[in-house]
Design goal:
The protein is α/β, with parallel strands linked by helices. Helix content is 34%, strand content 26%. The strands form 4 sheets. The protein has a 5-stranded mixed sheet, sandwiched between helices. Strands 8-14-13-11-12 form a 5-stranded mixed sheet, sandwiched between helices. It has a two-stranded antiparallel sheet with strand order 2-3. Helix 1 packs across helix 2, helix 3 packs across helix 4 and helix 8 runs parallel beside helix 9. The two termini are 23 Å apart.
């Protein structure tokens, strides 16, 4: 008898750099108080990569954890998808450096850049690949290293962002577990709200762009907060309705760790008060595309997730973009 199969998460992994940076250090550099940072963001500390570490190094460490938990060797992975907006180089793709670091030479590799929603977008691509080839396994990694592109004269961004990587292996899992649905939304009319203005083909790197700070990360914080408040809760409600559940039925909410105050507003507006909202930002800050998989890995390794639990993943941010996925946690994880 052939067991019914769905597509889901087989394992998780994460890596946070060793250097812990508290609010005292950031406050001194930015020109605010530690209390101001905590009140505005609910962040207490974050991690910064060592000078020798790049995004691919963090991603390799997270991917290794996910492979070990799944009991897989690197040569058993068919695809590697790396979600990052802070790649090692403009080219080659960071995923190829990750492939080399893992020794996963049987895998086809590519990057996605949807900033903080990228892990969920990559999860959607992984599901499509497994749907075509049910025996395949996809290593999905979200990794960002923001400490190198922060302007510490800009308190809107410098207090929030940090470095980290999270990973998941995606493949076939026994029904009824697995991914129930994924919804993706893109709003290019709001592309200017989160940006790095120089270093691409429109504004190539020059001495002038460097002097002007064009390579730093920029964000219109108030407008981003309004976008999230207006667009994310309705998107989560619509996804739940489409897959035949309600948000009060959700057991675990694993959101992008954008800002603690913002997360509280999303939970309230979406009606997710019954769910356990997993928060890692107090100790890790906003790690971009790594936020969702890092929080998922901590929940998984900490024993918070049980087979049959309804888990909602939600990424939102630069683009602007929203990615949300509902899944039934199960035996494959």
């Amino acid at each position: 008898m052939v067991m019914d199969r769905n597509i889901g998460i087989l394992s998780t992994g994460s890596y946070l750099p060793k250097r812990e940076v508290g609010n005292d250090e950031v406050a001194e550099r930015v020109g605010v108080t530690p209390e101001w940072i905590e009140r505005k963001t609910q962040i207490l500390s974050r991690r910064y990569a060592a000078p020798h570490e790049a995004t691919s190094d963090l991603a390799v460490r997270a991917g290794t954890q996910a492979l070990e938990q799944a009991g897989l060797s690197a040569d058993q992975i068919d695809y590697i998808i790396v979600s990052t907006s802070t790649g090692d180089f403009p080219q080659p793709p960071t995923s190829y450096l990750v492939q080399h670091g893992l020794g996963a030479y049987s895998a086809a590799c590519f990057d996605v850049n949807v900033v903080c929603s990228g892990f969920v977008y990559a999860l959607a691509l992984a599901r499509s690949l497994v749907a075509v080839s049910p025996d395949s396994r996809v290593l999905v990694i979200g990794a960002d290293l923001y400490s190198r592109i922060l302007d510490f004269g800009d308190r809107r961004t410098a207090v929030l962002f940090a470095d980290g990587a999270g990973a998941a292996v995606v493949g076939s899992v026994p029904a009824p577990h697995g991914i129930l649905g994924i919804d993706l939304a893109s709003r290019g009319d709001a592309h200017h709200l989160i940006r790095v203005e120089a270093g691409g083909s429109r504004n190539p790197a020059t001495a002038e762009t460097v002097a002007d700070g064009g390579h730093f990360f920029r964000m219109d914080g108030r407008a981003v907060r309004d976008f999230v408040a207006d667009n994310v809760p309705p998107a989560l409600v619509a996804l739940a309705r489409r897959v035949g559940v309600t948000l009060p039925q959700v057991n675990h909410f694993v959101p992008h760790q954008a800002n603690g105050v913002m997360l509280g507003e999303v939970v309230e507006r979406a009606g997710l008060g019954n769910a356990h909202t997993h928060r890692t930002l107090r100790k890790y800050g906003n790690v971009g595309s790594a936020s969702v998989p890092v929080a998922l890995d901590e929940a998984h390794r900490g024993g918070a997730l049980s087979p049959g639990d309804l888990v909602l993943l939600a990424g939102f941010g630069g683009g602007m973009a929203i990615g949300a996925s509902l899944l039934t946690w199960g035996a494959g994880a």
